[in-house]
Amino acid sequence: MEKEDWDAVSSQVSAPVSTTVIAFDIAGAYIVDAAASASFEGFVAAARALGFVTQETGKPNLTLTLAPELVVGDILNRVVAAVSAFEAAAAPLRIRAMVHYGVVFRTESVGELSYVGSAIRSTQSALRRAPAAGGFVATQDFAAYAAKLSDLPFRLQAMSGAAAADGMSQMAFSGRTVAPPPAAGGRLQSADAAFVAFVKRRLAEDIGPFASALVDRAVRSSTAVEQLVPALSREIDDAAARARFEEDMLRYISSQAR
Predict the structure, then answer these.
(1) CA separation, residue 49 to residues 25, 77, 97, 105, 173 (Å)
(2) pTM score, two decimals?
(3) CB 170 within 8 A of CB 157
(4) What is the pLDDT along the chain (258 residues), one digit of tens a residue?
């Protein structure tokens, strides 16, 4: 068989299909230690059994794309169980999850099925804008899709602030709390004056003088480090620069918590 013929057989892209995509990360990912990373790998393994997973190399995040024919309620029940298992092992860390419904393309090759498309990017982008505390959040598109279904294992609750303006809804599952538990000791928990000054200087390296106003605004919303740093990290568009910022925050927090 000629190479061109083999390529046509070995990789075929379907017509666009609509499906559910879920993006996950760890709230306060800058404080993840080796034990939490190991627990997260178990969560990744559980997610791979549910659909197609993409993951940013070396980062505690993943995106799960479901096959369109799957029953969403059943999969979400299994997802919640996997999230609960991670949070029990890695307390007080919590998973953030963004659930979206949109268009993807299914790519079939020899022995492999994968997905690409705008819905995956949209879900990841929405997660970066989501509240930092953790829990499941739905986009407006998923809420509209869920309204057509029955026997779902969650209810949607109104949110406030920027999340509400973005059309997001909190997903509340039976038997699962929405609010994050208290943080454990041994870590920097609140943003004191020295930390705020450090963050302003460091963030300015990436986004310029507007950093000071952004930090002041974020501090007015919450002085908890687990919320403050992810919120500011989302202001950095470049992924590599964002990762360096989070690593610098981790080093500072670790040095102060000793």
Answers:
(1) 18, 13, 17, 20, 21
(2) 0.66
(3) yes
(4) 344 444 444 457 677 999 999 999 987 655 567 777 888 889 999 999 999 999 887 778 899 999 999 999 999 999 999 999 988 888 778 899 999 999 999 887 766 788 999 999 999 999 988 877 778 999 999 999 999 998 899 999 888 777 777 889 999 987 554 444 434 433 445 667 888 888 999 999 999 988 998 888 888 876 667 677 877 888 888 888 887 887 788 777 766 654
Distance of CA 88 to the CA centre of its chain: 18
Give the integer Cα–Cα distance in Å for 90 and 76: 21
Task: Tell me how far apart the alpha carbons of residues 25 and 239 are, in angstroms, rounded to a whole number.
Answer: 14
Q: Is the bond preceding 230 in cis, omega lying within 30 degrees of 0?
A: no
Helix (H, G, I), strand (E, B) or coil at 10: helix
The two tokens of residue 144 are: 């509209």
The structure tokens 């974020």 sit at 218
Tokens matching residue 252: 């500072």
Q: Quick check: 249 and 199 in contact, CB under 8 A? A: yes
Distance (Å, rounded) from C-alpha 18 to C-alpha 108? 16
Residues whose CB is less than 8 angstroms from the CB of residue 18 and which lie 6 or more positions away in sequence, other chains included:
68, 101, 102, 103, 104, 119
Amino acid code (one letter) for 35: A
Alpha helical stretches, state H, 51-103? 72-90
**Crossing angle for the helix pair 34-48 and 72-90, to the nearest 10 degrees:** 160
For residues 124 and 61, give the distance between their C-alpha atoms in angstroms, rounded to a whole number: 10
Rounded distance between C-alpha atoms, residue 227 and residue 161, angstroms = 14
* Most distant CA atoms of the chain, gap in Å: 68
